[in-house]
Amino acid sequence: MKIRIKENSVRFRLTPTEVEKFCKEGWIEESTQFKTTTFKYGLKQEQIDTLQVDFNANAVTLKVPRNFAKEWYGNDVVGLEHYEDLSDGSKFFLLLEKDFACLDNTHEDQSDKYPNPKAGKC
């Protein structure tokens, strides 16, 4: 699972194995160990209508509508997005998506990725 945070946005990208686990078990989490603390990030299925995010105790949790999550592994839907209103009137962008194989040369392991729909196209 990859997470990208930039300003008021967070994006989660999951491999096929991670999508399957999340859809079946309802929860997936990873962590990054720093010298003085551990940062956790994950997804949790909930009975909600739209994506929601929470940051608590050094953890970012993306809450995903259960109705979407239960069907996600077996369909061709790439992901789900939502703009969450913040108390100051600004918006927080949330994006959950399947992780496609890179088209350019990369040192990252590409073995557990969704086939890129743009592969082989000019």
Note the main attributes of this structure.
Gyrase A, domain 2, 4-stranded mixed beta sheet, mainly beta, 122 residues, globular
Descriptive account of the structure:
This protein has 122 residues and is mostly beta strands. The protein has a single domain (2-98), classed as Gyrase A, domain 2, CATH 3.30.1360. 14% of the residues lie in helices and 43% in strands. The protein has 2 helices and 8 strands; from the N terminus they run ββαββββαββ. Strands 1-2-8-7 form a 4-stranded mixed β-sheet. Strands 3-4-6-5 form a 4-stranded mixed β-sheet. A hairpin with a 2-residue loop joins strand 5 (52-56) and strand 6. Helix 1 crosses helix 2. The radius of gyration is 15 Å and the shape is globular. It starts with a strand and ends in a 24-residue tail after the last strand.
Q: Gyration radius, to the nearest Å?
A: 15 Å
Strand line-up across the major sheet: 1-2-8-7
How many strand units? 8
Query: Helix segment count?
Result: 2
Structural category is: mainly beta
Anisotropy-based shape: globular
The poorly predicted ranges are none
Helix content: 10-25%
Q: Architecture, CATH level 2?
A: 2-Layer Sandwich
Mean pLDDT: 88
- Total separate domains: 1
Beta content: 35-45%
CATH topology: Gyrase A, domain 2
Distance between the termini: 29 Å
